[in-house]
């Protein structure tokens, strides 16, 4: 953690000037992260969802099957956390792939915290 010193107007000191020392921390904001969510529906085949998770999220078959089942049972699941640009790309890739195969699969993103 860094700190800067600033001179601010305040009561007179023995130099006869008017100043006090305050400290502020420079804000080094990390860029926000985004959760990519997969949503359940009644029509997209389970194997298609597993394939999507392997293809676009780099999951192995067992991991992909597990997340697919979580979405199927709970209604949705976080499938990854990324920068804004990467999350947007993942969502677009999934939505385009599902559309091309005429499945109603939905994928969205949401800012973390
Ligand atoms: N509910 C779908 C079915 O029973 C499977 C499914 C799982 C669909 C996950 C979408 O994101 C999804 N065929």
Characteristic key phrases:
113 residues; alpha+beta; 3-stranded antiparallel beta sheet; two-stranded antiparallel ribbon; 5 strands; 38% helix; 31% strand; disordered N terminus; binds L-tyrosinamide
Which outline best applies?
elongated
Total beta strands: 5
Instruction: State the distance separating the first and last CA atoms.
Output: 22 Å
Catalogue the ligands: L-tyrosinamide
Query: Strand order of the main beta sheet, please?
Result: 4-3-5
Helix content: 25-40%
Low-confidence stretches: 1-14
What's the mean pLDDT score? Answer: 88
Task: Write structural notes for this entry.
It is a single chain. The chain has 113 residues and is of the alpha+beta class. The protein has three helices and five strands. The strands form two sheets. Strands 4-3-5 form a three-stranded antiparallel beta sheet. The chain has a two-stranded antiparallel ribbon with strand order 1-2. The longest helix has 17 residues. The N terminus is likely disordered. The site of L-tyrosinamide has 13 residues, from strand 3, helix 1 and helix 2. L-tyrosinamide binds next to strand 3, helix 1 and helix 2.
């Amino acid at each position: 953690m860094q700190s800067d010193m600033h001179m601010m107007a305040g009561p007179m000191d023995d130099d006869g000037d008017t100043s006090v020392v305050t400290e502020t921390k420079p804000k080094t904001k990390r860029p926000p992260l985004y959760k990519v969510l997969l949503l359940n529906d009644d029509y997209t085949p389970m194997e298609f969802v597993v394939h999507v998770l392997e293809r676009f999220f780099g999951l192995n078959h067992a991991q992909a099957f597990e997340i697919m089942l979580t979405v199927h049972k709970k209604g949705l699941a976080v499938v990854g956390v990324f920068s804004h640009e990467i999350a947007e790309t993942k969502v677009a890739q999934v939505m385009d792939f599902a559309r091309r195969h005429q499945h109603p699969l939905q994928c969205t993103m949401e800012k973390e915290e």
